[in-house]
Design brief:
Peptidase M50B-like protein, mainly alpha, membrane, single chain, transmembrane helix
């Protein structure tokens, strides 16, 4: 992939993520992967997920019992950019990737969604991920998946900055559990998001041109 094409996709993801209405599903996607990361870590450490909520303003909440609360609290902001990087790196899979994302959203809807607003938002994400399955694969499909991955990473880079100085959220919870200041956790999450974008850049330089 040419450097110019990567920068173009990055700019497109940045613009789309900031557009009214159009950018909202991309914001929901980042929140979905954020809350999904909380839930999966809680589940894998022996806990039980009670519900996953997504709100129209782009916020969300994953409620769980048991497991390792510290790891689950850290996983949200750390996991979202990793999901974005995975989508970007697997974009060549096109329809397989789209199908896997759609199935993932559907499973969350079936097992963890308890309210109509989350059901509506998850339905929008399910439609967004499933739409590529209706068309033949091609270079545009890979580009669309790459833009989605980049948008998730960019939103994951922006999201933790809202935690500076507000005394609430995952950073404050981690500070309470570890005695390490919330700002340290925020900077760490920003570093992870930047590292994911850097990894995407390096990966893009090894890819052949899209035809």
């Amino acid at each position: 992939m040419a450097v110019g094409r990567f920068l173009l996709l990055l700019l497109l993801a940045l613009v789309l993520a900031r557009l009214p209405l159009i950018g909202l599903p991309l914001d929901w996607a980042e929140t979905f992967f954020h809350e999904l990361s909380h839930g999966l870590v809680a589940l894998f450490t022996g806990g039980q997920v009670e519900s996953l909520r997504l709100h129209l303003d782009g916020s969300g909440l994953c409620t769980f019992r048991g497991g390792w609360p510290f790891a689950a609290a850290f996983a949200g902001y750390a996991g979202a950019p990793l999901w974005g990087l995975a989508i970007f790196r697997l974009a060549g899979g096109g329809r397989i990737l789209a199908g896997a994302l759609a199935v993932g959203v559907l499973l969350v809807m079936l097992f963890w969604v308890r309210d109509p607003i989350t059901l509506l938002i998850a339905g929008v994400l399910l439609t967004l991920f499933a739409l590529p399955l209706r068309w033949r694969p091609g270079g545009w499909l890979r580009s669309a998946c790459e833009v989605l991955g980049l948008a998730v990473m960019l939103n994951a880079l922006r999201a933790p900055t809202a935690l500076f100085g507000n005394g609430i959220g995952d950073a404050a919870e981690l500070a309470r559990m570890s005695w390490i200041p919330a700002s340290v956790w925020i900077v760490l999450w920003l570093a992870i998001a930047l590292g994911c974008l850097w990894s995407a850049w390096r990966h893009a330089r090894t890819l052949p041109a899209v035809r």
